[in-house]
Design a protein that fits this description.
The protein is mainly β. It folds into four domains: about 5-175, Cupredoxins -  blue copper proteins (Immunoglobulin-like); about 180-330, Immunoglobulin-like, CATH 2.60.40; about 350-470, Cupredoxins -  blue copper proteins (Immunoglobulin-like), CATH 2.60.40; about 485-580, Macroglobulin (MG2) domain (Immunoglobulin-like, Sandwich). The protein contains four helices and 39 strands. A seven-stranded mixed beta sheet has the order 12-11-10-14-19-16-17, with no helix packed on it. A hairpin with a 6-residue loop joins strand 22 and strand 23 (about 370-375).
Length: about 575
């Protein structure tokens, strides 16, 4: 009996009563989800098992047959490569006890999800070998395709390459648009590997790989080499995740067919958009609807990455053509799914509401750590800026390098505003996003607002070699309250008073006087001893009066800081001493 027939028979027999209807296909795998069968025409696509909410995720070095007949040393999670897939409803609480049976530290990031700071997988919350950590958080994101992966400092690329990643799929009643479901809702994790390294996954990057990223010349889909998937002459929903370290794919079909993009990183778009190709960078997810009703039984079509021009010195450089997965048409079954005319509308941010603009300039070097944002490489203990809850910001990301940089923010979804000033947004970019690919020499603007949690989070390049080589910054989300007016007295002159207490821990208050209304350019900011701004307590217009601000640098290290008040022609700086 063919594997797909066994899947459908299990569905019909009601073997999946404990698993909600969407993505039932996951649940038909054995506990050990590593590929063990092969045909002359490729290998049948496999699916990781569904994770049992509240259970353990055990990471271990395991010998498995990724390529049939060849033992491969990889990282598995609960004996699965990739890791088990989380399938959960919006509004539920997710819990997983992550057990580290590896020989090096780990941490787990829930990519695209808005979670409390201590649950986000920051490298500061690393899990030592032989230890465990329980992640638990409410699932508040829209329905969509998210994922989890390694995020330990300077070990992310290695651990992801060797197997530390898995799907995290959120279902939402708001998705009730008669989309294909069950066996016709298919997740595809796309990762490149090197045939020269078969059967193992050695990770030994040299100077070119540290520069361009660790690139391969063959593709695994859900850990399956040379994958094929048997389909019916009907409509399918495919959830595409680029789980590669560095490769950017130009997604298309071998027959140049049209298909519909229906979702981006953060869930459904406002309407399907018909395309023939799109780019998919590391960390990005795109969901598509593909109709095989025009195919005859016995025919096939291949999802592939088209060739494109790109520089670089690696033998497996960006832009080589790669086959991803073949779809074999085998029967006339129907999914019952449709291509809707529209989904729920997305509320787009208004650029006129921006209260803060930040610029991030990306550069690359030749000595370790090599890659920088605003001239800085990652320092695990340094806070690079603070942002306020519910404040709309515009981030300008300037790529001054000769490589792609898929930039990713933690904790929220953002919206692309422009590329090189062009506001005509590509279908794969428009909607809710957490990862945006910045092209060579390109300047991209995004609108971002943090609405859910305070605490420490990360902004970084999702070319994982770039991340591990320094292209990552810390930021802290703080309370939305900036300043408050004290009484009704109008002072005679401008003044910035010494903070109290000083030295301080955990918080200090800063009082200042405004003698007359200042339009637009007043600010109270905090700088570190290097002169870098680490917090902005207030910026904008302000009326005459006496004011007080509180600074509570939860994640800042001890040291000397400076608060600077600027109001028209008045400027004054005071020294603050934080002791922890």
């Amino acid at each position: 009996m063919k594997r797909r027939d066994m899947i459908l028979k299990s569905l019909a027999a009601g073997a999946l009563l404990t698993v909600p209807k969407p993505l039932q296909l996951f649940a038909n795998e054995s506990k050990n989800a590593v590929l063990t069968e092969v045909t002359g025409a490729g290998n049948p696509l496999r699916f990781p098992p569904v994770f049992t909410n509240g259970g353990n995720m055990v990471l271990a070095e395991t010998t498995e047959q990724v390529w049939p007949g060849q033992d491969t040393q990889i990282i598995t999670i609960n004996s699965s490569f990739p890791g088990p897939s989380v399938v959960i409803d919006k509004g539920q609480t997710f819990t997983a006890n992550v057990v580290n049976n590896l020989s090096e530290v780990i941490t787990t990031h829930w990519h695209g999800l808005s979670v409390p700071s201590l649950m986000d997988g920051h490298p500061l919350q690393s899990i030592n070998p032989g230890s465990s950590y329980t992640y638990t958080f409410p699932v508040i994101n829209r329905g969509g395709t998210y994922f989890y992966h390694a995020h330990a400092d300077m070990l992310t690329a290695k651990q992801v390459y060797r197997g530390f990643a898995g799907f995290f799929i959120v279902r939402d009643p708001a998705e009730n648009f008669n989309l294909p479901s069950g066996a016709y809702d298919v997740p595809l994790c796309i990762q490149d590997r090197r045939t020269a390294d078969i059967p193992n996954f050695p990770y030994n990057p040299g100077s070119p790989e540290h520069t361009w990223g660790y690139l391969g010349d063959t593709v695994l889909v859900n850990g399956t080499p040379n994958a094929y998937f048997e389909v019916s002459r009907t409509l399918y929903r495919f959830r595409l995740l680029n789980g590669s370290n560095a490769r950017v794919y130009k997604i298309a079909f071998s027959d140049s067919r049209q298909f519909n993009i229906i979702a981006t990183d953060g869930g459904l778009k406002d309407a399907p958009v018909q395309v023939t190709e799109f780019n998919l960078a590391p960390g990005e997810r795109v969901e598509i609807l593909v109709d095989f009703s025009g195919n005859t039984i016995g025919s096939n079509v291949t999802l592939r990455s088209l060739a494109y021009s790109f520089g670089g010195t690696l033998p497996y450089k960006q832009g080589i053509a790669l086959d991803i997965i073949r779809f074999d048409v085998v029967n006339n079954n129907t999914s019952g799914g449709v291509v809707p005319g529209a989904f729920n509308p997305i509320t787009y941010y208004n650029p006129a509401d921006v209260v803060q603009t930040r610029t991030f300039t990306l550069t690359m070097g030749s000595s370790h750590p090599m890659h920088k944002i605003n001239g800085l490489t990652f320092d695990i203990n340094r806070i690079d800026w603070q942002t306020r809850l519910n404040s709309l910001e515009k981030w300008r990301i300037v790529n001054q390098t000769a490589d792609y940089h898929p930039m990713h923010t933690h904790e929220t979804q953002w919206q692309l505003l422009s590329r090189n000033g062009n506001t005509n947004i590509a279908p794969s970019d428009k909607g809710w996003k957490d990862t945006i690919n910045i092209g060579v020499g390109e300047t991209v603007e995004v609108l971002v607002k943090f609405t859910d949690y305070k605490g420490l989070y990360l902004f970084h390049c999702h070319n994982l070699e770039h991340e591990d080589e320094g292209m990552m910054l810390n930021f802290e989300i703080i309370d939305p309250i900036g300043i408050q007016q004290i009484g009704t007295e109008v002072p005679r002159s401008f003044e910035l008073h010494q903070n109290y207490p000083n030295p301080f821990n955990p918080a200090t208050k800063i009082k200042f006087d405004i003698a007359e209304r200042v339009a637009g350019d007043a600010s109270l900011a905090v700088f570190d001893i290097r002169g870098r701004q680490v917090a902005e307590l207030f910026k904008g217009s302000i009326t005459a009066g006496k004011y007080e601000a509180e600074w509570k640098p939860d994640f800042m290290p001890s040291g000397t800081y400076f608060a600077k008040l600027t109001a028209g022609n008045f400027t004054k700086t005071i020294k603050l001493v934080l002791t922890k």
